[in-house]
Amino acid sequence: ALDIDEQVEGDVLPFHDRPATGSDVTIFHFALPSPMTAAFREAPGKRVLVYHNITPAEFFVGFDEELVRIAAAGRNELRSLATATDLALGDSEFNRRELEQLGFERTGVLPILLNFDEFHGGTPNPVMQDILGDGRANFLFVGRVYPNKRFEDLARLAFFYKKYVSEDFRFILVGKAGRMEHYQQSVQALADHWGLTPSEFLFTGHLAWD
Description:
Elements: H1 18-21, E1 25-30, H2 35-41, E2 46-51, H3 65-80, E3 87-90, H4 93-101, E4 107-109, H5 126-132, E5 137-142, H6 151-164, E6 169-174, H7 181-193, E7 201-205
Helix pairs in contact: 6-7
């Protein structure tokens, strides 16, 4: 890795360490422009790229010009690896097709595997049961509050639901805005304009998983 979280310092090597650069097969999880791109291009043996998508830069225009630059540079770096990669894997068919369009010849899909066992058999939180069990229809969306997540579409959906279906509902939007507070404020202004109350369209911010 380029940056190593302190919780996994004993399990992860810096990308430039000798044990990390002399393998028969190098697998590169591509996400952002970085010095690792050049290191991967020069790595010996077989080179496998795993791609989880880069948000198109145009989503950030008007909100964060640094992210516009990073996203554009990342996509250009990705394209530069097309002829240096033995196998390119997307985590979805959508991302695999993007790799193909960028010139990667041998592609495939490597889905994200999740163990859902930890979500079953837990004890419900009685406070949340009281809050959410009042008969309203609950709509939950989990994701960081960034323009590519299209929170304005959720506000639009809430408005139409309230107007044409029922007024007994709430949209619960879980995720942090981070450097996109301006975007969240613009979505909230849209919800206010359409007459959605805080109890109907609620940003919770980041919530820890317990």
